Structures are given as structure tokens and as C-alpha cells.
Amino acid sequence: MNLEEEDKLVARIKGTLGRIPRTSSQVRLGMGDDAALFRPRAGHELILTCDWFLEGTHFLRENHPPDSAGWKCLARALSDIAAMGGTPRCFLLSLALPTSCTGRWLDQFLAGLRRASSRFHCALAGGDTTRREKILVNVTAVGEVRAGHAIRRRGARPGDLIYVSGHLGEAEWGLRQLKSGAKPATLRSPALKKHLYTEPRLALGQWLGEKGLATAMMDLSDGLSTDLPRLCAVSGVGARLDAASLPLVQLPIKAQNAAVDPLRLALHGGDDYELLFTVRPKQARLLPHSFRGLPITPIGVIASKQQIVLLDDNGREQRLRPLGWDPFR
Prior knowledge:
This protein has 329 residues and is an alpha+beta fold. It contains nine helices and 14 strands. It has two domains: 3-146, CATH 3.30.1330.10; 161-319, Alpha-Beta Complex (Phosphoribosyl-aminoimidazole Synthetase, Chain A, domain 2).
């Protein structure tokens, strides 16, 4: 890709994504200079996060529609902002493409990214482009939260109740459907839609932060069995989970007959981007059963002994092994 070609590519990106949403007017200078300028609101702290989205690892070019890749690369990054109770403001996009993907694929990718940018009120402020044999996307997102009100992983105490939003294992089931030949265009399956068009739980995270209900929180990107130990490690605690309480994905009879285990999907399936959070027992009554139609489910309790234990349907306890997503496994 020579300089002229790259300039044209950048111009296409700017033409599609260059308009800054009104809610992101704090971006004082966007695309076109060496760097962007951002002015945070008084009394707020910045949330900074970045996320890789790699062909062959996070999406498959032959299976995933380009507009889904555009939507999801931003939505995944914004899930980190949701997990701290923050509000998205802007993002930086680093994009490496083969020449064969600088035409129709790129147009559809940008269309999906533009929809996500508009939906979540998060403006493109800049980034970088280059050529590469496989598609590589990196998104750096900027958010805001009132000073001193960010919800961290640290803060869970023994006796706190553990909650999750949504249904666990749903996105993993959606990926399996996609690989088995499901047509993304129909999106009749909620699981397929969840996998392709991730919804960061921004409103719930902000509500939990405003109400001061969550003592610790993170998003579920790598699976409950892998992410919960991370929260517990930072807080210096353990956890007891009740398998019967987990909000499982509803599988069709055909999948049940194929011996697909919804419990394993819930424990180890990644890509859900639901919120995992803890609440003091005295404040649990303030939590609704659902938030704007999104289920909120208690699944266990924080324990003092630093281990993760699963109580099965027969009342037996077993150590929960972290078998979720690990790129280095």
C-alpha cells in the first residue's frame, strides 16, 4: 500500500466515521492531525482501555460478516468501560488489512463500526492504518466516570452475593451455530445475534455505579470459570457458586440430543460480555430481577477461603477449574 493508497483509505474511514456525535463534543480535535485532543469534564476521571480483534482468533473472515466485525471490535472495548460504571466518549482505531480487503469488505466493516459508534455515542478520534496479510484491528476506547465512583475488581468481601447479567454461554453457542452453517443474515437465534453483535452492558454498569450497589465488578469476556478467579484474586477472596442458579442458554432439542452441555457453556464459554458483580447482602433487595429487560441473577456468594467452589445439582462441592478462553493455552 503506497502513500497515496493509504491516504485514500484514511479518507474513506474519515468520510464514514469522521462525524463526531453531539455527546462526544469533548473531542476538541479529531482525525486529520498527528493526534487528537480530548477535554474531560470537570469532576470526572478518564477510563482508558484497548482491545485486540484479530482474524483467525476473534473472528473468521469466511464466517463472520464484515459489518459484524466492525460492530464487535468497538463493542468489546466498550464492555470494559461498562464494567467500571463509565460512559464512552471516543475511540482510536488501528487497522491492518490485506489489499484484497480494502474494497467491499472495508466498506461493510466501516458500516458496522459506524452503527456501533452512533449507537453507543462514541466518536472516532483518530488511529492508524497499514497493510498486513491477515486482518488486525486494535481499538483504544476512552470513557468517563465521576471521580471516585469507578467500580473496580477490588472490593468484594466474604458474604457478598455474586450476580451476573443476561444468560451465560449464549455467545459460545452462537459461535457454534455460525461454524455449523447458520446464516447470519436471518439472526433468528438470540445466541447468534449475541455472538455477532455484542451489546456492552453500559446502562446497567452506569446504574450500578450511580446507586453505589456493586462492591466489585468486571465483564465476562473469557468465561465465568476464568474471569471470576481474576476478580477474587484482586479482592483476596474466594467464591462458592450454585450450578442450579446459573442462567443457562436455552438450547434447541436437537442440540440437547447432541449432548451439548449448557452448564459447560455457561461456565467456560467466552464472548458473553455480561457483567459479573458483587453486592452486600443488605443491599441485595434493591436489585431488580431484571434491568430494562436484561435478567439479573444471583449465582453464589463470596467466601473467605481463596478458592472457587461449584455446588452441583446433587449438593456436592468441587473445585472449579478455569477452562475458559486463554490465548496462551
